[in-house]
Every structure is written in structure tokens, then in C-alpha cells.
């Protein structure tokens, strides 16, 4: 009888230790997600701007090819205002959805792949001054690389895009330029400015 009681007690203690360990991991995961919030918000910002980038690019091409020079600046400002209005409306919604979805989407991955000690080490790293400095500079580094790649490839890629536009339009039986938003009927043009990201 004494052995049974000891076995039950041991099992209860093991279960309690497991609950404590899980609670400890959950607290660490919450801290991790709190630290990652700026990155989550940046992801949301990227999703919102990616959705509008094709419209901005098509509008920029329309302005460049279809609008007289003297009217471009005025129309570009009007288009940029519409893009900014879209961003100001869409970004808070997507940001809040991303923040609320993060625990359910990221939490189980951390739970299943990191021990409590590993989570502590991870938190120590991301909260360090070095990690913060890296995270602050990372967008700048990505932006510099993106700018250079665009500059280096634009002259080769733009003709391919125009050819693709014409070929897709031909395949669909549409007028040339109809698939890429470059026709004169486009009412939602843009200068291609990234003012909506501000």
C-alpha cells in the first residue's frame, strides 16, 4: 500500500513538474513574441504594400508613356494620395491580425522545437544590444541590396516584362497592354512612389 501511495505521489509530482515546465515555456514564448512584434508589424506592412505595388507600377508606366509631361506631376500626386489612403486604411487592420495570429502560428513551432533552456538563450540573444543593432540595420541592408539589384537588372528585366505583357495579352486575345494595366483606360495610376510606406 505504501508503494502504491509513493507511486501515485511520484506521478503527481511529475505531472506538476510538466505543467510548470509548460507554463515556463509559454511565458518565454510570450516574451519572444513581444520582442518580435516590430518584425511582425514589418511583415504586415510588407504584405499591404506588396498588394498595392502592381497598381503603383502600372500607374507609373501609364504616366510615363500615356500622360503629357506637363500633367504628370499633378496626376502622380493625386495617385500617391490614393495609395497613402489605402495604406492608412489597410495597414492597421493587417497589423492587428498579424499580431493576434502570431501566438497560434509561431507559438507551436517554438514549443515543439525549443527546450526551455534554448528559449532562454534565444531571448538573451534577441534582447542583447548587438541583436537590437542588427535588427535595426537589417532593413537598411535589405533596402540597399534591393536598390542595387533593381538598378543592375532594370534595363534587362523591363523589356522582358513588356514582352511578357504583350505575350499574355496575345494569349488571352486582349489588346496589347491590357493585361498589365498600361492602357489609357486606367483610372488608378501612380507615380510609383512609396509614400504609402511612411
What is the number of helical segments per DSSP (H or I, 4+ residues)? 5
Q: Which residues sit in consecutive blocks of at least 5 with pLDDT less than 50? A: 5-21, 178-198
Measured between the Cα atoms of the first and last residue, the distance is 72 Å
> What gross morphology would you assign?
elongated
Number of strands: 0
What is the structural class? mainly alpha
Largest sheet: none
Q: DSSP strand (E) fraction?
A: under 5%
- Round the mean pLDDT to the nearest integer and report it: 80
What number of structural domains do the residues give? 1
Q: Mind telling me the C-alpha Rg? A: 26 Å
Helix amount, in percent? over 70%
Name the helix and strand elements from N-terminus to C-terminus, one letter apiece: HHHHH
Helix-strand blueprint:
Elements: H1 2-35, H2 37-66, H3 69-113, H4 116-126, H5 129-172
Helix pairs in contact: 1-3, 1-4, 2-3
Offer a concise description of the structure.
The protein is an all-alpha fold and 198 residues long. It is 83% helix and 0% strand. The protein has helices at residues 2-35, 37-66, 69-113, 116-126, 129-172.
